[in-house]
Amino acid sequence: MMSAKMVASLNRLRVIAIREFLSYLRTPGFWLSLMIGPIAATFGGMAPTMMHQAAPAPVLTVVDLSGTRATPTIAAALRGPKPLAILVAPPEAVAQASSPAAAGRALRPYLSGDPPAGGPRLDAAAILSGTPQATVVDFWSRDINDPDLQQAVRGAVTQAMQQARLSAAGLDPQVVAQFSAAAPAVHSYSPRAAGGQVSMKDRLPSLLGLGLAFVLFFAIFTGAGILLNSVIEEKSSRILEVLLSSATVPELLGGKILGVAGVSAFIIVGWGAMGLLALQHSAPGMVAEVGTALMTHGLVIWFAFFFLLGYLMYASVFAAIGAFCETVREAQTLLGPIMILISLPIMFLTVALEHPDAPLIVALSLIPPFTPFLMTARLASGPPLWQVLGALILMAATTTAVVWLCARAFRAGALSTGKLDLKRVAAGLVGRAG
Amino acid sequence: MVPALELEGVNKRYGDFHAVRDLSFKVEPGSIFGFLGPNGVGKTSTLRMVLGLIPPTAGRIAVLGSSQVRASLDRIGFLPEERGLYRLMTPLDAVVFFAGLKGVSAAVARKRGREMLEAQGLGEAISRPMKALSKGMAQKVQLICALAHEPELVILDEPFSGLDPVNQLGLEGLIRDLARRGATVIFSTHVMAHAERLCERIVLMAQGRKVFDGTMAQARAAAPTRLVLEGALDPSSLASLPGLASVERQDGQIEGAGLYTLTLTPGASAQAVLKAALQRDLDISQFRLETPTLHDAFIVLTKAHGRDDER
Predict the structure, then answer these.
(1) Domain that residue A418 falls in
(2) What is the pLDDT of residue A294?
C-alpha cells in the first residue's frame, strides 16, 4: 500500500508530465516533425541511388602510349546495367601527342567543360604510358572526389598488364584468359552467425543495433532540447518558482523528463509504426526477421535499459542547464561541451558496427557518457555478459550521481536571478547556492 | 491556538551576505499579516524559506503547525513577486494545472476556476491564450491559480505591484474575503497604504532585521504625533510650549501669519500642548491634529534602525 504522501507526490509528477506532454502535442511543429522525419529518412536513404541513377554517365577517353592495348579491357570493365562511363575515342589533337605530358596539355581544354569547337566534352581521361608490362596511368578527371572510375580503370589496366606479362612468358592467350577469369566462390562464416554461414539475417541485428543507437541519439538530442527550451521558458517567465512552491525538485524534474520522454517515445513509436507498415507493404517476409533480430542477444531489452539511463542522464543535465538560463543564447555557452560529448560516440558508431570488439570501442562502451550509444551498437555482436552488465552498473551509478547533482543545480538555478554566472552554476552543483 | 506561521531565530546567509538576521515572529490563524520593508531587506528570502524553497542557515520555521514545510504545501497558496504563466495556456487550463498540483481533481478545479475567473471579470478571456491577456488580467489569473485549491495559508509577495488603483482595491477586497473565510493571509509590500488598510499585525524589516512586530496601533505609536497650528504666531513662543520635539513653519516664511507643524515628544498629549498655547493667549486661528500614518512609523522605525547600526 502506498502512503498518502506518496500518492500526492505521484499525482504531482503525473500532472507535470501530462502538461509537458500535451503542450508539445498541441503545437503544429510537433506533428510536422513527426511527418517530416520518415520522409527525410526515406529521401536520405534513397538519395545516393537516385542521384546515381539520375546522373549521366561520365565521358572517358583512353590515350594509349604504352601499347598495352588495355582499351578493350577498360571498355569491358565499364559495362553494366548502369555503365560507369561512356568510352569515346580521344580527340585528334590528343591522339597525336607523343608523351604523357603533351597528352595532358592537349586534354586540358576538353576537360575544362568548355571544349574546343567540334571536340567532345570529356569528364575523365586515362593516359597509358610505359610498356605493356610496366604501364603508368595518368588519370585525369573533372571530379577529383569520385574514385570509382579511377579504380575501374586501374583494375582493367592491371588485368591487361598481367595478361601481357603472362603472354610474354610464353603462355597461350586463351589459357591466360581462363586463368584471369578464375575467381573463388566465397562463403562467409562466423561463430556469431546462427547457422554458421553469415547471411543478411545475421547482419540484421548489428544493423538494428546501429539503428537503435542512432534512435537513442535522436531521442536524447531532441528530447533534451525540448526539455531545455521548456525549462528556459519557465525560468524566464518566472513559473519555476511557483512550480517549486507546489512540487519538490524530484517531482518537477521527474515530471518534466517523463513528459518529454513521452513526446520522444510518441515520435519513435510513430516512426516505428510507419516503418513497419512500409516494411509490411514492401517486404512482408522481413517483418518476422526484424522481430527476431530485435530479440537477438536480448538486444531490445538491454537497449531499453541503456535508453532509459542515457535519456535520464542527459535530460537531467539539459534541465539543470536550462534552470540557470533565461535565453537560449545563455544556454548555448554551457551546451557546447555537452554537445561535443554527445557527438563523440556518434563518430565511433560505424567502427563499432564493423569492429565491435576493438579495444578502443570496448573501452569507450564502458565509459558512461558513451555507453548508451556504443554498447547499443555492440550488443548484437554478443559482447561478454560481464561487459554489458558492468557497463549497465557503471551507467546506473553515474546516472544516479548526475541526476542528484543536477537536481541540486536545478533548484539553485530555478531560484537564481540575473546574468548567467559559471561560479553560480558550480555553487549550485555543490549545493552552496540558495 | 497553533500559529499559522512561526519563525524562531531564523537566519539566512548567501556566502558573505547576511540576508536575514535572527528573525522571529508568529502569525495567528485567520489574520491578515503584513510583512513590510523597503526593497532588498530580506522579505523575499524569508518567504522563500517559509515555503521551503531555500533552507534557513539557522533557526526554526513551522508552517501550519508543522516544521516539515514541504509537507504542508498543498495547504498553502503562493503568489511570487515576479509573476508569469505559460504563454500558450488558457487561464482556465492554468487554474486546473496549478490546482492539480495541489491535489484538486481536474473536474473540481475546472468548475471552481470558471467561477473564480468569472467573478474577477475574466469570463470572456477564459479560453484565450495567456499571451493575449493584458498584464493586469494575467496577474489576476495568477492570483486565482494560487487560490483555487482553497489554501489555509496564503502568501502573497508584493501582490499589488503592477496593478492599477482599481485592481489594487479589488485585490484588497479579495484578501479581506479570504480572511473572512478563515484563511491566513501574509503579504509582503513596501507600499504602506495597503498594509494600513488591511493588516491587523505587521512585521517591519530593515537591513535583514526585524525592527517592529506588533499591531497597527503600536506601529503608529512609534511615530510622533503632529499638531498643526495656523495664525499670527511667534516661533519662539511655540517652541516654549511643553511636550514638543520640534517646531517647523510649513510655508517657509519667517514673519506674519502662517502654518506651523509642532512635532510632539513620545507620550506627550496634543490636548495639553493646545491647552498651554491657549492659556498663553497665542493667536491661533485654526488647529489640526495629525495622527501618524504607517508610512510615518515606517520611516521613523527604519531610520532608528539605521542609526542603531551606525553606532
Answers:
(1) 199-429
(2) 78
Same domain, A392 and A259: yes
Together in a domain, A232 and A133: no
Cα separations in angstroms, A375 against A192, A381, B13, B306: 17, 10, 46, 65
User: With contacts defined as CB-CB under 8 Å, which chain B residues touch A433?
Assistant: 14
**A133 and A264 fall within a common domain:** no
The class that CATH gives domain B224-291 is alpha beta
CA distances from B188 to A114, A271, B57, B178, B194 (A): 82, 52, 21, 16, 10
Length of chain A: 434
Residue of B nearest to A19 (CA): B97
Q: Do A238 and B74 touch (CB under 8 A)?
A: no
| Tens-place pLDDT, residues B110-141 | 999 999 999 988 989 999 999 999 888 888 89
HSE-CB at A8 with a 13 A cutoff on CA atoms is: 17
Domain count, chain A: 2
d(C-alpha A242, C-alpha A235), whole Å: 10
Return all residues near B304 (Cβ < 8 A) that are at least 6 apart.
B211
- Residue A38 lies inside a defined structural domain of this protein: no
A146, A177, A208 — which closes off a domain? A177
Q: Over 50: is that where the pLDDT of A44 sits?
A: yes
A248/B contact by beta carbon, under 8 A? yes
The domain ranges of chain B are 5-220, 224-291
Superfamily of domain B5-220: P-loop containing nucleotide triphosphate hydrolases (3.40.50.300)
Same domain for A403 and A301 = yes
Does one domain contain both A256 and A326? yes
| pLDDT tens track for A280-326 | 888 887 788 788 777 777 888 888 898 889 889 989 999 988 888 88
CA-nearest of A213, A171, A161, A163 to A380 is A213
Q: Which amino acid is at A158?
A: T
Grid coordinates of B95? 487554474
Q: Cβ contact (<8 Å) for A241 and B100?
A: no
Percent of chain A residues past pLDDT 90, beyond the cut? 17
> A143, A177, A211: which is the final residue of a domain?
A177
Cell of B203: 512585521
Of A26, A247, A434, the CB nearest to B101: A247
Contact at CB, B70 and A16, closer than 8 angstroms: no
> What's the pTM value of the predicted model, to 2 decimals?
0.75
Q: Are residues A245 and A127 in the same domain?
A: no
| A6 part of a folded domain | no
A232: closest chain B residue by CA = B86
- Which residues from chain A sit within 8 angstroms of residue B83, using beta carbons? 238
Q: What is the CATH number of the domain that holds A152?
A: 3.40.190
